[in-house]
Amino acid sequence: YRRPHLKKTRLSEFNQTERKAMLGSYTKVLFVRDPFHRLIATFLQGMGISPSFSSFVQEVLDTGMHNSSEAWKPLVSLCRPCLIRYDYVVMFGFLRQELGHLLRRAGLPAGSFLPELSDSQVQWTYRWLSEQMFSELSAHQKKQLSHFYRWDLAAFPFSSSFLSD
């Protein structure tokens, strides 16, 4: 998409005609991750000041949808998959397989651009971490988190998520 040099950086700053032209000219890739795994990663990176995972989750729930950080805000509210037709949705935990496919579709040699990823080890680690962290939460917090991320859980195939009903 050719556009004049403008200082606009967010898609919402363009009018509908410009947005349609831009989005139609790009290959749109969306990287998604289980919302519970995003919470765990955010907590482990120290983005919350809480001493426990349970109190961190309570902070997230107390801030609500509109005041939440992008680190744990529901993906549907960040990337608008109902409004933007993404060409590819790449799931965390299947990166090596999916990125290889994506690079081949783009006509690039898949092996030369991919970092060493061990998807099965990542999946096992997050499964174990999820079990540990989920056990720290009260039944009420679990229910609130499932509700908080309900649109992500409906939009993407996180079938093994601890937040799925």
From TrEMBL:
Pfam families for the chain: Sulfotransfer_2
Keywords: Carbohydrate metabolism, Glycoprotein, Golgi apparatus, Membrane, Signal-anchor, Transferase, Transmembrane, Transmembrane helix
Keyword Transmembrane: yes
GO cellular-component term (any): Golgi membrane
Gene Ontology biological process terms, A to Z: carbohydrate biosynthetic process; dermatan sulfate proteoglycan metabolic process
Membrane topology: Single-pass type II membrane protein
Main location: Golgi
InterPro entries noted in UniProt: Carb_sulfotrans_8-10 (IPR018011), Sulfotransferase (IPR005331)
Keyword Transmembrane helix belongs to the record: yes
Single Gene Ontology MF annotation: sulfotransferase activity
EC number, as in UniProt: 2.8.2.-
Annotated compartments: Golgi apparatus membrane
PANTHER family, alphabetized: CARBOHYDRATE SULFOTRANSFERASE
Family: Belongs to the sulfotransferase 2 family.
Protein name in UniProt: Carbohydrate sulfotransferase
Classification lineage: Eukaryota, Metazoa, Chordata, Craniata, Vertebrata
